[in-house]
Structures are given as C-alpha cells and as structure tokens.
Amino acid sequence: MLLPRILTAVIGIPIIIWIVHVGSLAYASFVLTVIGLSLYEYSILMQFAAKPVQRTVLFLFGMLIPATAVINNFTIEQIHRNNLLSLSITLCVVFSVVWELFSGKKSLERIGLTLTGIFLISWNLIHLMGIRNFPGGEGITFMMLFTVWTMDTAAYAAGRAFGKRQLSAVSPKKTWEGAAAGFIAAICMSLLLRIFMKDILTLTQALIIGVIIGLAGQVSDLAESMIKRAAGVKDSSNLLPGHGGILDRFDSYIFLAPLIYYFVLFTA
With contact defined as beta carbons under 8 Å apart, do 88 and 65 qualify? Predict the structure, then answer.
C-alpha cells in the first residue's frame, strides 16, 4: 500500500507544480478536471448512500458554473463577468427544481443533495482559479498546496504516534493530537514560505493564511469523511493508487479555497 502511495505522489506532485507554474488555460483545465471527477465521485457516493441525485443537473450545471468562470477570465469584458456567473448560478437552482417537478419523484431531498454537490464542489473549487489569477497568485497557490501537504503529513504522523482522543465520529482514525500537530505545522510552513514571498504577503497575512489552512483544511477533510461515512466507503474512489479518489486528495480545498480567496481579495 505504501509503494503505490509513494509512486502516485512522485508522479503527481511534479505535474501539479508544473501546471500551477504554467497557469492560464492549463491550470484552468486542471481545475475543471478535478471538479468533473469530484462530481462523478460525489454522485457515486450518494448512490452508495441510497440518496441518489439528479445526475444530469449535477454534471450539467456542476461544470457550467466553473466553465463560466473560465470564460470570464479569458474572454469576457469585466462589466459582464459577475452577471454571467450569476446567471449560471440562477439557472442551476431554477433548473434543479423544475427538473424535479417533471421527474415524477418530486423529492426535495434530491434537489438539496444535487445543489449541495454543485455548490460544495463546483462553486467552492473554482476559487482555486481565482487565487491563481491574483497578482502573485502563483506564489499564494504554491503556499497553499505546500502548507496543506505539510499539514496532512504532520497530522497523520502525529496521530499515529501520539493520537489517543478521537477528533470526530465521522473519521475514527483522526485524533485531536494529530489535528493539533497539523494546525501547528500549517502555521509554521506558511510563515516559512513567506520568506520567499515578502513582496506579496505581510507576516500577518502569512500567519492568518496558516491559521485558515490549519483549521478550514482539516474541517473540510472531515466534511468529506462525513459523506463517505454515509456511503459506507473508505475512499471516494480508487482512481489514485494508494491515495483513494480525487475528492480524497482535494477535500481540504473545498472549504479552504474560497476562504483563502476572499481573505486575499479583501486584504490585498
């Protein structure tokens, strides 16, 4: 189990670093791919949980919203950007309700689970593109990635070595000791990386980003664990050998990406 995990990381991490560095459409395509595969895994998890979603609506609008964000970034004049994205979100909600009205099932639960998937995954993860598009966004994106990886490693190692008190019932192997180590590691790594980003972030901003990652990243991970527990599965899929699925690898960014985006937006 350890060898496939290492091989996946050795192959995958350099590719991700290269894509982040290149940015532009290459990075946008990568984020869209992550969103699309995450939506697919979410639909399968809901099927396992015996709580089916409107798959057509999930995929159609789950990809339309981030695609609109890509169009905004590369082709649309500034004055129309917010309106186009607002339109796609409005159509998403309206179409989900209308779809259910004429489906014969008329299930509010299906509407809710479908919209939850779209906004939890698609809407939140498109902020990864927004972060990369900031002035200095490449550095901020790398800071976020490296800090999350460090946090996950520290939480895992400390949890195995010292973990005694369970953090949450939705993820029995996670402990308060591991979470504390991950939180501290996130702050330390964020402050360390700030050495290379003095022209982009202040020391206070780097500290707050570390706190956000240390808290929101781990809570986001627990949120995905809650979905998997409802489905009765350990991993969201087996797409990444030794790591599980795409959702398993990017779950930390579901809450993290929008929080980092708006923090940088309002403090830049």
Answer: yes
Tokens of 103: 């489906």
Query: In whole angstroms, what separates CA 90 from the centre of its chain?
Result: 22
What pTM does this model have? Answer: 0.92
For every residue of the chain, DSSP letters joined together read -HHHHHHHHHHHHHHHHHHHHH-HHHHHHHHHHHHHHHHHHHHHHHHHTT----HHHHHHHHHHHHHHHHHHHHTS-HHHHHHHHHHHHHHHHHHHHHHHHTTS---HHHHHHHHHHIIIIIIHHTHHHHHHHSTTHHHHHHHHHHHHHHHHHHHHHHHHHH--SEEETTEEEEEHHHHHHHHHHHHHHHHHHGGG-TTT--HHHHHHHHHHHHHHHHHHHHHHHHHHHHHT-SSS-SSBTTTB-HHHHHTHHHHHHHHHHHHHHHH-
| Cβ(245)–Cβ(236) below 8 Å | yes
pLDDT score, position 106: 66
Cβ(232)–Cβ(268) below 8 Å: no
Question: What residue spans define the domains of the chain?
Answer: 2-267
φ/ψ of residue 59, rounded to 5:
-80, -40
Which residues, 6 or more positions from 196, have their beta carbon under 8 angstroms from its beta carbon? Answer: 139
pLDDT value of residue 26: 94
Residues of the chain with pLDDT under 50: 76, 79
**CB of 185 closer than 8 Å to CB of 150:** yes
Query: How crowded is the C-beta side of 148, counted as CA atoms within 13 Å?
Result: 26
**29-68 pLDDT per residue, tens:** 999 999 999 999 999 999 998 888 999 999 999 999 999 8
